[in-house]
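Format notes (please read before filing issues)

Several people have asked whether sequences and structure tokens are stored in separate files. They are not. Every record keeps both together, in the order shown below: the sequence lines, then the token lines. Line labels are part of the format and must not be stripped during preprocessing.
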Amino acid sequence: MHSIHSRARQLYFRWPHLVTVAKERIPPGQKVTKRFPRLDIGVVLRFDASKWRLRIEGSVEKPMVLTWTEAMALPRVKVTADFHCVTGWTKLDNGWEGIPFKAVADAAKVRPEARFVGIECGDGYTTSLPLADLLKDNVLLAFSQDGANLTAEHGGPLRLIVPDKYGYKSAKWIQRIVFLVENEPGYWEKRGYSDTADPWTEDRYS
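Then the structure lines:
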């Protein structure tokens, strides 16, 4: 069940790029690295701005299909946040720039009964989160990391960033956002990973 993450964990801990940080700065079971390892289900998508679309659907008053130009016209925010991978590494102080998730929710006019959000990605990956978690000020759809356009390998052109959760909730290559009344477990959640994914309680597996 955990074979992909197990291999990634084994590869990571061979790297001599760990750094020392005060224990209270990082969640239990994590080690800090200066690198930003790539981890996905094996497909890297290439960006074509003329074909790219973001669908926003479900329990909303105003379903939307955004082009890249339209997405880039939405409000922007910069967030500095740590990134915690379930395989055991943490990268500190990532500088993200992107669209606040709550700006997307506001634009689509989410209905009061919506309590969850399903995220669907171009590689077939899915995840889901409570709407309340996604409306936090540090959650965004990122198109830039540390001052540069987000690379394809790390989810470019647009990925979800949820700093308070393990990284498998920060889905890459987002193509569809669905506001839901009931929760729908995603790719890793169906395979035994925690739906709450809280790094500070080491909530890795259900």
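For reference, the curators noted about this record: The helical segments are 3-12, 68-72, 101-108, 131-134. The chain has a mean pLDDT of 91.
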